[in-house]
Amino acid sequence: MEIYSTEEQQVEAIKRFWKEYGVSIIGGAVLGLGGLFGWNTYQDHLVGKAEQASAAYGRVIEQAGQSQDALDTAVAQFQNEYGESGYGPLSQLLLARAAVEAGDLAKAETLLTEVLPSMDSTTAPMVTLRLARVQLAQDKLDAAQATLEKVTSEAFAAQREELKGDVLVKKGEMDAARAAYQSALDAGGAQTSPALQMKLDDLA
Question: 6: which DSSP letter?
């Protein structure tokens, strides 16, 4: 390191340093502060959008108790404005439930199939089970059975096996259905489905 013996030399060294690097230092500081301000502004924007999406989804839920047309319109508008938010898939699930209640099982199947890829590992098994139930209700037995094979989470094993038993009963495969119901019981299915034991007893 260079050592300066007099104050004049030190002052001159500082002047030279500032002349060479002053612009870079100021520019870096401006960019750093600008980046921080921009990041905070962006975060505020995201929070604001999330709050707007939440409020808008609440309005969609209010329409769920109204007519199918009113709900279709509300969901379409919501998807147009907030479809990329986390509430987008939930609005489609509302439509699917309304379609089931209206007896439009084909529409419900389409909606559930479309929304399934956007579900995370926690919600995907539940949506998959709903899809299988809708397919079973339409007597699409092979499709329902194939759908159930995609439910691999042990947390949903009882529900999967019981529904698999329902499919197999409709297919006339009673021995396989009995085995599926027994698997559901072994997985604790009696706690969530009181009818499970009766289904098994009916096959005895």
Answer: S
Instruction: Please name the residues in contact with 10: beta carbons below 8 A apart, sequence gap of 6 or more.
Output: 4
Distance between CA atoms of residues 157 and 129, nearest Å: 11
**pLDDT per residue as tens digits for the range 52-83:** 656 665 665 665 566 666 666 666 666 666 55
pTM of the predicted model over 0.70:
no
Cα–Cα distance measured from residue 113 to residue 122, given in angstroms and rounded to the nearest whole number = 17
Query: Would you say the C-alpha torsion 190, 193, 198, 202 has a positive or negative sign?
Result: negative
Q: Is 72 exposed, middle or buried (0-12, 13-18, 19+ CB in 10 A)?
A: middle
Environment class of 83 (CB within 10 Å of its CB; exposed 0-12, middle 13-18, buried 19+): middle
